[in-house]
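Structure tokens please, single chain.
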Amino acid sequence: MSQITIAYDNKRMRRALPTAATRSGDNAVCASGLFHILTSAFIVSARIYLAPMEGLLDAILRDILTRVGGVDRCVSEFIRITHTLLPDHVYLRIIPELANGGCTPSGVPVRAQLLGSDPVCVAENAARLAALGPHGIDLNFGCPAKVVNRHGGGAALLDDPELLVRIVAAVRRAVPAHMPVSAKMRLGFNDDARAVECAQALEAGGADELVVHARTKADAYRPPAYWERVNDVRLAVRIPVAANGEIWTVDDALRCRQASGCTNIMLGRGMVVDPGLALAVRYADAQTDAVMGPGQSIQTAEGYPVVTWDEIKPLVGAFWLLVCARLEVRQQAGRLKQWLNFMRRRYPQAEEAYMALRTLHDPVLVRHWMVGQGILMANRGSVREDAGT
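Here you go.
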């Protein structure tokens, strides 16, 4: 196997780049021959989860981001449950990893998320979904979208802790005992006065784990995130709690852990902006354990690994090929620009790419530009041929 090097400040770290399209256990290599980062040297007790983000962090981006390394588990974007028992093909469309043992092509497990307010309907769908083999069922009590809240779903349920108990209990009874049931919540709807009460309700219903987004619905995604309030939740329950919200850098991750008391964290937009963020946090964890001993903490991190733009470029190419394979033509250019728009915060080259593609809508023109930038190979054929359609 040939090697590539990731630069980080004054040190160097080696990472493997397979030269052939192969698959081998957990170190699966994508069909396009792009790298899969081996992170075994940085495995520590802390867990890093990849957040569900409706309309952004779908199966395509989960595939790409988990190729970089550092992520222990993904959660799918929510599947909305109303009054219908959904057929299997709906679950497989939203979570195609179900056809791959419930894992991304890189071997990272995916937990399936459901959103609904009717305990019976949610439980019936959870039972059907469980039969398809996800790595657990997650319940959404944090979505701030008005269209969801208007119908009593997502964060709106945080105003009714008794209903939270009933939903979680119904799902817990409906799925096999060995299958984890987790929940993601915000600190509240309009305020955080019932944060602890809601967390205790989810625990009482049988949730095995909580992820707490450190803002209320009213806060939306405006900074800051109130990590210290997650600590109040953590201290009030006996199940594991992971902290989420406003983690953009390694230093943010370390400060979040310090304030929340949570070992486990969930990364969302920060990972979309910087695909190497989880890997960098892993490195900081390993450095902390080596210098201070397991269980200790530090406030800041220096010398963490950086995934360079040259290493991002093949990921962008792979993302484009997957987008062309799975999405309608009218959606393709927009999805690429959506990711580039996020990465502009981290990479000046992403800003340049976004501005160059901003007015392009024809996938053929987008492909030609990507070939010219060395993101795609010129001999890959047309967009349709590249996509395998």
